[in-house]
Protein: MFS transporter
Organism: Xylanibacillus composti
Amino acid sequence: MPFGQTRSHFPKMWVRGRNSQSGYYRHSDKGKEKKPARKSGSLPGQAVLLLVVYGLFAAANALSGAFVNVYLWKESHNFALIGGFSLAHYVVNALTFFLSGKWVKERNKMISLRLGIAVSAAFYLLVLLLKSKAIDYAYVLGAVQGIGAGLYWLAFNVVYFEVTDPDNRDRFNGGAGLLSSGAGMIAPWLSGWIIVSMADNAGYMLIFSISLGVFVLGVIVSLFLRKRKLCGTYEWTHAFRNIQEKGNPWRRAIPALVAQGAREGVFLFVIGLLVFIATNDEQKLGNFSLITSGVALISFWLIGKLLKPHYRSATMLVGTVVMTLIILPLFWDVNYATLLLFGIVTSLFFPLFSIPMTSTVFDIIGRDRESAEHRVEYVVFRELGLNTGRILGVLLFIIVVSQSTKPPAINSLLLAVGSLPILSWLFMRKIQGIKTKKS
């Protein structure tokens, strides 16, 4: 479809169906030879290939993700700098999502996907070139990482929506969690072993180089994903108008996403950093990831396999309550044992929260034909909600550590932001199992 053309790619005759460009609606295809029906809940080939790309992206990040923060910490011993690195990432990530939406909808979303992986590779190339000077460019590096993540996740989420449907979305999310947990189990353990086995910072340089190579492999594999159809003209303010409509599910979904993002923004980098500070041993950080990701792998597999849409609200409540309560032992002592207990329990119960949360939001995007036509705008809207929360969470972290870095202050911060998923459940519980409309 030429740039700027306003005609939707959706044909006039629609029926409910799976594996469509819309994520739920498909063309009725009357008069054409019917293909063998796919088993309900199974994943089509393009969804499986997308999971492979996701797995490579997750593996590259798992190899070096936590150790980038540790590397910056060892060079600076500055909590605020680590927070600033993450803040730059989230701010630029949000801007990238918002500004790239037009390209993804009107031009080529696969270019965005591949470019995002390539820019993520460039981030590690810059770290390799800067070496110990990386702390002087921490905000720039955070911005580069944010650009790569924004380009990748925008395209990924749109394609994910297009190759899945409400019947297999929980299965896909379970598979994605399985892959990320598997990568998080093996890769950091391997990275920790490499770092402690090599002198000075040579181990860090090696694992950053391996991540660079895996990202390049991810670009190559992504070439086998088919080019997706264009889906009309991008409307900058379309999704935002939803929060003005009484009864619109986005009025509940957005604050739920902000609450989820606030927790993610802090916990994604603080926990690994606390493990290293408590032990001063990269291998123990690798062991921590090995154990907790192993638990998460089993949990994601079971929940992705067994969870049904009508159980989403109940499972979210259980997950959020347990994830909050397990923060309390840290007030007794922040050591490897209490952090490991926190990590294991969180890994076990986090899928109860994340799988229903993600699936429900994407079901809202595909609830009817009009909504599915604006899926790019809604994916951008979703990510802006998450990044708003992440930015607020990291800003709160920077404010707290600027005043005090003692355990009671940091633990109170963790409890405050760690309990926010309860708000996500409160907002989401009335829109769980949202019904799609026949057209």
About this structure: The longest helix spans residues 45-76. The chain has one domain: 43-225+244-428.
